[in-house]
Amino acid sequence: MDDPRLIINQSLKQLRDRADCLSVETVKLFANQAISFFFDYYHSTQQVLREAIELLCRINILPDPNLSRIGVNALFPKLIERLNDAFDPAYCKLYDEVFSQVISFCRAIPEGHKLDSTLTQFGLPDELSLLKRIELLRQKSNAIDPNAAIKKIILLSRITIGADVAISSVILSHLKKIYPYADLVIIGPSKLSDLYGGDAQVRISPLNYERTDSLIGRLNAWLSVLDIVQAEISSLSADQFYIFDPDSRLTQLGILPLLPPSLEFTNYFLFPSRTLTQSNISKLGHLTSHWINQFSADCQPTYPYVSLPPLKREIGTQLRKYFWNEAKPTIICISFGYGGNISKRVTASFEQNLVKLLSRDYKIFLDFGFTQQESEEVEAILRVVTISGKQILRLDEQNFSTYLNPALSNYDLIAWKGGIGSFASLISASNYYIGYDSSGQHIAAALGIPLITVFVNSGSSLFADRWQPFGTGKSQIINISPKQNYNEDILLDQIVTMLHRNMNLFP
Question: Does one domain contain both 496 and 454?
Answer without folding.
Answer: yes
